[in-house]
Design a protein that fits this description.
With about 375 residues, this protein is α/β, with parallel strands linked by helices. It has 15 helices and 15 strands.
Length: about 375
């Protein structure tokens, strides 16, 4: 199969869909790999590194899209990319379709077969291709929040770890999944007073064991959410419903009860955000203020640390990517976890959460794949 990797074009996105090491694996499996010139510049991998790994270098993205049978990316295709996709081609990348009707229509019109990293599953019920970027985003959320909290950046002027004689800053993490766990680790490591809210008692027990009392755990009710947000210096939104739009857990009305200059970090912004006042921002202009509260809502947070995140992502995506390259559509038909990752196929939505969020009729993946 011809596997193509175009350069990412989203604002300040420096990651790459295939590292040179991943290219070597595809080549070892007998596949031809086409990489757009400069695609790996953000991680310090030049064209020669890709040539040494066995790739062919394409001068333009158009050449990659035209020649490749499978496109491997990081972020969702932009408008000038989805118009280059075609029926019979496989797209393998993050999609986050539920809050993005325009992209969804573009993919449907193209006829492409689109597998979304964020909905591929594993035997333990996890999301193995989302997990590494959730780990990165969770840790970055505290770095970003602490920076935004500085007075010169519009924040309250609180040092998260405090100093002897002065209380530390307070961090509230909404959601105890992968993002929440790693946000809490970073915040606790800096010496902050940390509380994690979640609605799973077993998960709260697990988190309590992990942190051995260094982090508070609290069952998430409306009252608990308000109390924790009102007392926090940083609130991290770390809620995920796989494939679906994120629930709006912090309303605009609640902002009036928060400390002026407190920071909201919405890690769920790729799925529409879990704060009512959230809208996507970029690394070029990451924050804005609403009712005295600083909002950090960068939609590609891991893109800020591309060397770490691109390699972590490739480690996770390589296994399923090789299956797709080796077997094509049959890989999706044969593997339940890849079928869960299938979001679009030949003009049909094949993921229930996406279909329900956007008002489409869902097509059963096995049925449409078998028909093909």
């Amino acid at each position: 199969m011809r596997v193509g990797c175009p350069k990412e074009i989203k604002n300040h996105e420096y990651r790459v869909g295939l590292t040179p090491g991943a290219v070597r694996e595809y080549v070892a499996h007998g596949h031809e790999v086409i990489v757009q010139t400069g695609a790996g510049a953000g991680i310090g991998a030049d064209d020669n590194a890709y040539r040494a790994a066995g790739a062919t270098i394409a001068k333009t993205a158009e050449e990659v899209f035209t020649r490749a049978d499978m496109i491997v990316k990081v972020k969702e295709p932009q408008p000038n990319e989805w118009v280059q996709l075609r029926e019979g081609q496989i797209l393998y990348t993050y999609l986050h379709l539920a809050p993005d009707p325009a992209q969804t229509k573009g993919l449907l019109d193209s006829g492409v077969t689109a597998v979304a990293y964020e909905t591929v599953t594993d035997d333990r019920g996890g999301l193995p291709l989302l997990a590494p970027m959730s780990e990165v985003a969770g840790r970055l959320s505290i770095q970003a929040g602490a920076t935004a909290l500085q007075k010169a950046n519009g924040g309250r002027g609180v040092l998260l770890g405090g100093v002897p004689g002065v209380l530390p800053g307070k961090v509230t993490v909404i959601g105890g999944g992968v993002v929440g766990l790693h946000a809490a680790k970073m915040a606790a490591g800096l010496g902050a007073d940390v509380t994690i809210l979640d609605r799973s008692i077993p998960r709260l027990r697990q988190l309590d064991d992990i942190f051995n009392g260094r982090v508070h755990t609290r069952y998430s009710t409306v009252e608990a959410l308000e109390e924790e947000c009102f007392s926090a210096d940083i609130v991290v939104g770390a809620v995920l419903i796989p494939g679906a739009a994120a629930p709006k857990l912090v309303s605009r009305e609640m902002l009036s009860g928060m400390k002026k200059g407190a920071v909201l970090v919405d890690v769920a912004i790729d799925q529409g955000g879990c704060f009512e006042t959230s809208h996507a921002t970029t690394h070029a202009d990451p924050t804005y203020e609403v009712d005295g509260i600083i909002h950090y809502c960068v939609a590609n947070m891991p893109g800020a640390v591309p060397v770490t995140s691109a390699h972590a992502l490739n480690n996770a995506t390589l296994h399923y990517g090789l299956q797709l390259a080796d077997k094509g559509i049959k890989a999706i038909l044969d593997d339940q976890h890849l079928r869960n990752g299938l979001n679009v196929h030949k003009g049909r939505i094949t993921n229930r959460a996406v279909a329900e969020a956007l008002g489409y009729e869902m097509a059963e993946p096995k049925t449409v794949l078998a028909a093909a």
